[in-house]
Specification:
Rossmann fold, 5-stranded parallel β-sheet, alpha/beta, globular, 5 strands, about 130 residues
Length: about 130
């Protein structure tokens, strides 16, 4: 299974996801993609083995990903303080991959009916969902 984690800004969400995946010993080696070098470095420091930075890695990875994980903002152009380009949002949206999107409010997207949860709670729930997929 090709698991792609996309994160931006400081890479905190992606780092928490990488750590949780490793802690649970899930049989997957995620490809982490940062929208900037700081986010990529944070996810690699958290234990990811493979990472890349920028728009083109997002475009390439989305073509054959099985699962894409990230904040809901990865579907919206100019979100994450402008770090998600229109091409990135289209690549994620058009990917045939299952998308596990965490409803973080900083992206100016709110999903009605979704309970407020901390980032840690959302990461835990995401890892539980990944367990069922693996």
């Amino acid at each position: 299974m090709k698991l792609v984690i996309i994160d931006g800004q400081g890479g905190r969400l992606g780092s928490l996801l990488v750590e949780a995946i490793q802690k649970e010993a899930l049989p997957v080696d995620p490809l982490v993609i940062g929208t900037n070098a700081i986010a990529t470095a944070a996810m690699l420091k958290a234990g990811a083995n493979q990472g890349a930075t920028g728009e083109n890695p997002v475009l390439a990875a989305c073509r054959d990903a099985d699962v894409i994980v990230g904040a809901i903002g990865i579907l919206s152009a100019d979100s994450l303080l402008g770090e998600i380009t229109p091409n990135m949002a289209v690549a994620v949206g058009q990917s045939k991959a299952l998308k596990l999107l965490l409803p973080l409010g900083r992206c100016n997207n709110q999903v009605i009916g979704v309970k407020d949860a901390t980032m840690s709670e959302l990461v835990k729930e995401t890892v539980e969902r990944l367990k069922t997929l693996l």
